[in-house]
Design brief:
The protein has about 110 residues and is an alpha+beta fold. About 0% of the residues are buried.
Length: about 110
């Protein structure tokens, strides 16, 4: 799949404006294997603001945990949920060493609209 085959919402953001391109690795969907979702593509060189930097990467890899996120197969294990006013109880539970997953603190607006 080439960059030209992507829908406009999947194309890289407008770059420097001078038509400069670079070769990069792009992911536009989830899938079970790297070869199913990663592709080499010619991409617009991103515009860099005064408070940003553009880094040239010579080599990279993806660790197993990151790959699960990219593949869409990672699911969080939630042990307990607590409302915001029960944070001390949640911390005690965590410090007691009984957790078997994540502890979620629920924060709600007074006005949900």
């Amino acid at each position: 799949m080439t960059d030209q085959q992507l829908s406009s919402s999947q194309r890289p953001a407008a770059g420097t404006g001078d038509g400069a391109t670079m070769i990069g690795i792009a992911q536009n969907r989830y899938g079970p294997a790297p070869e199913d979702v990663l592709r080499q593509a010619e991409l617009a060189v991103p515009a860099v603001a005064d408070d940003q930097v553009l880094v040239r990467v010579h080599a990279a890899s993806v660790d197993r945990g990151t790959w699960h996120v990219m593949a869409g197969t990672l699911t969080a294990v939630i042990d307990r949920t607590h409302p915001l006013e029960e944070v001390p109880a949640a911390i005690r539970y965590l410090l007691d060493g009984h957790t078997r997953g994540k502890i979620v603190i629920l924060v709600h607006d007074a006005d949900p609209t």
